[in-house]
């Protein structure tokens, strides 16, 4: 299961580390306790929108940028989770495709068209 609070905490930590700042510096600037900020970064606490705003201000990062990065991380996590789930289910065998050439449709002359479809899905009737 993907936990949004963990993804959010990971992104906040990366933002802080990119700036070379300590938890103490950011917690002081955001006016949040060091322990609480640490728990948010580790994904153990859900951050309110007010707290996120204060942390973003302390990091000089727009909340929209933070959320965009979280959204990207969430997309990757969902893809990875989906890929892992699909590996557990046997892949169905793809049906053989047959080619059908069409030179006229309803008496109207057309260019040659080739249609590929599963053999069992197409009934061809000669006119």
Describe the structure.
The structure is a single chain. 54% of the residues lie in helices and 16% in strands. Helix 1 (4-18) crosses helix 5 and helix 2 packs across helix 4 (49-59). With 127 residues, it is an alpha+beta fold. The model has no long low-confidence stretch (mean pLDDT 82). A hairpin with a 2-residue loop joins strand 1 (97-105) and strand 2 (108-118). It has helices at residues 4-18, 23-30, 34-41, 49-59, 63-88; strands at 97-105, 108-118. A two-stranded antiparallel ribbon has the order 1-2. The chain contains five helices and two strands; from the N terminus they run αααααββ.
Which key terms come to mind for this protein?
127 residues; alpha+beta; two-stranded antiparallel ribbon; 2 strands; elongated
